[in-house]
Fold this sequence. Notes:
Helix content: under 10%
Largest sheet: 7 strands, mixed
Oligomer: single chain
Distance between the termini: 37 Å
Amino acid sequence: xxxxxxxxxxxxxxxxxxxxxxxxxxxxxxxxxxxxxxxxxxxxxxxxxxxxxxxxxxxxxxxxxxxxxxxxxxxxxxxxxxxxxxxxxxxxxxxxxxxxxxxxxxxxxxxxxxxxxx
Length: 118
């Protein structure tokens, strides 16, 4: 089982980034994929998640209306489109898999850094 994030970087406030999470080693259709983030000195928080089988999604209040999660099942890849980025979005972003949208996320990628300058 492998999850590989990409797409992080440095962006100015108000800008956009798209993160990718490429999955391999398991049946993509049977899982939910979630994006989480952890800023220095803060606890990890759930950002967005998607059920691959039925497309249902979840977004945390802090990102609702700015972030959009989607999947390309042909590529076994989940995307996180992040618009109107704010300095408080600065964190390491991780993707993880779970059997269910609100289940335990037990397979994790290595993370990608997102830095938003003011």
